[in-house]
Amino acid sequence: MNTIYKTKLVALAALVLTTAACKKDFLDVTPTDKVSDTAVLSDSVLFEAFVVNRYLGVRLIDKEAEGTPPGFGRGFEYAMWSSLSDESIYNNDDNTWFIQRGQLLPENTGIAGTFWKRSYRSIRECNYALTHISEVPMSEAHKNLLVAELKFIRAFRYHDLIRNYGGIVLLGDKVVELTDDFSDPSLFKREDLATSLAYVLSQLDEAAAGLPENNSNSWLRGRATRGAALALKSRLTLYAASPLYNVGTWEAAVQAANAVIALNRYTISQNGYRALFRKTSDDNEIIFARYYSVGARHVPMEIANGPNGYDGWGGNVPLQNLVDAYRMANGKSISDPTSGYDPQNPYIGRDPRFYQTIFYNGAGYRDRNVETFRPGGRDSQDGPSNWNTSKTGYYLRKFIDEDMPINNPWNIAGLQPWIYFRYAEILLNFAEAANELSGPDAIPAGASFSAREALNQIRSRTGVEMPAVPAGLSQEAFRELVRNERQIELAFEEHRFYDVRRWKIAEQTENVPAYGIEITKNGSTFNYTRKIALDGRSFAAKHYWLPIPREEIQASNNTLQQNPGY
């Protein structure tokens, strides 16, 4: 987007459509901080700004939603979604520890509690725009483009609801009004998973047909393309075929991923793994992302997650559970006795993505090495700002921009893009689905390569270059490999939480303690001792889905069906 257009969007981001009161008297004044329906529907620029702001949404103004990001998912927040999984814990709690400990309740949802209301608020806004777009003075071609965008945004919101709650309330094009009869139970009828997914997938087909293949100039940067709609379809069809959902087919998931691949627009970035996640990133691997500007930035990652010895706040600290998932550079698991893994030199010879994702003891950062050892380590309890010391012995590196300052970040930091879809995810979707359909080496109908070859495209990335997956693996062995590859390649990108649930393995992964490492320095040597960084992690079968907040159940006159177990 150009600067002028960005400024308009920022200025309009908080505007709420209002309707004029019927009674005309001296109290009936025109608000100066809002834009009326009439103004929006009679001005094509205002209407388009309203549509574009649906990518951002509106912050919910209540205590529960404080700090809730206005976009899709949580993205760059103080407590990231990774800290509700076995990837990390949030050093300062922020309503995450009780969820890790299985204490999530409809009355106590913490950072997991806002998806329902903000998703339906956005859906209502999309429906409003779709209902009234015919009244806006603009060309039919441009209206059709905005309709496609609105259907994509609405589908994304429904996808967020489905992957958190399961079957959902489908509103179609209905614009819910305060004058509606809320005693009507049909307004709160939850559809089953199959019906919910079928509706959203059909909307994505319609959106993809009307969206451009690419946004050719900066004015359109960050808006939906055909690839974005097809990527969302790929994700949802993969979910649909997975054990938790079990309402789709692996063949459909293969076809959906292949539809993105067949666009021939996206590639695995050869500019380096970490470069994707920096503010300067502009790469053909990115399919759809949220971009930020100086006037609209996110939480500065450098101070929010940096080591305490650099005056960072710790933030989302990686778990030993995740560190152990990184294989050796030779491709072997650290549990393999032939891998070359040395428990007394645990950070030597690992998958290159480990070094680009996690700060560990001895990692180079800025003008020195990270020191999480005791006694005397500057990034341990013995260092400055020790109340921010990592509870796990690790710090997050993946999104950190070392060109940004730490101590005065608010003027220029917080500009990294949040990537919703990138080509690596599509290849991983394809690899998983193709393996489940016909094994790792077969080339599915309509595709140009096998599941194994898809994985090797990711593992040949410049700066990563892990060994190629050999031919002849069993379906089960490849399944474990592709699951590990997703865990590593997509770490901290809001996938792991949903992956372990859709695979129905969360009762294993989320009932393991949250481990860290304690490092003791003795002369020139280090001793490594595994420790529990957060006790009491617990996961029950009911936690495969989030509870609908109690206030939403009550607002429906208790006709809205709660998820089982809550």
UniProtKB/TrEMBL annotation:
Sequence ranges assigned to domain SusD-like N-terminal in this UniProt record: 25-238
Pfam families on file: SusD-like_3, SusD_RagB
Places the protein is found: Cell outer membrane
Domain RagB/SusD per the UniProt entry, residue ranges: 298-566
Keyword hit for Membrane: yes
TM helices/strands, residue ranges: none
Signal sequence extent: 1-23
UniProt xrefs under Gene3D superfamilies: 1.25.40.390
Keywords tagged on the record: Cell outer membrane, Membrane, Signal
Family: Belongs to the SusD family.
Designated name of the protein: RagB/SusD family nutrient uptake outer membrane protein
Species of origin: Olivibacter jilunii
Taxonomic lineage of the native organism: Bacteria, Pseudomonadati, Bacteroidota, Sphingobacteriia, Sphingobacteriales
